[in-house]
Specification:
It is built from two helices and eight strands, in the order βαβββαββββ. With 130 residues, the chain is mainly beta. A hairpin with a 2-residue loop joins β7 (101-111) and β8.
């Protein structure tokens, strides 16, 4: 089995503070049905806010320390069983007091000795007043 992130709706949605971002992992069956599945760990985290997409990309490619005010919201690790009908999800809770802006959604798949990283841009809008 191989796992990749994520449904386009996961990243195309504008979120608000206090909401939960659900990362729907895409599962692709392996080519060898007799192969023993490797232990897999799926991770997802949201880091920001950034004023714009260019600021986010600059920060992502820089080795510098994160800018002041940048926070990270992490989903608990997901360890799928490898069942063919399994549809794993990662849940990231966005804090009630999260600042609006652009956030970097960073995903990783650790499968045996191999790992793969991915990134997407997610927007968090200002909190609405009730």
């Amino acid at each position: 089995m191989t796992y990749t992130c994520c449904d386009s709706l996961d990243v195309d949605t504008v979120y608000r503070p206090g909401q939960q971002l659900t990362v729907h992992w895409t599962v692709k069956p392996g080519t060898d049905p007799a192969a023993k599945p490797l232990q897999v760990e799926l991770a997802a985290r949201l880091t920001g806010p950034y004023a714009g997409v260019d600021d986010l990309k600059d920060a992502a490619t820089s080795a510098a320390q994160p800018a002041a005010g940048v926070v990270t919201f992490e989903a608990p690790l997901v360890r799928p069983s490898g069942a063919s009908d399994e549809r794993p999800v990662s849940l990231i809770s966005i804090a009630e007091d999260a600042s609006p802006g652009y956030y970097n959604l960073i995903t990783s798949v650790q499968q045996g000795e191999e790992s793969a990283l991915g990134a997407s841009v997610v927007r968090v809008a200002p909190r609405t007043r009730a």
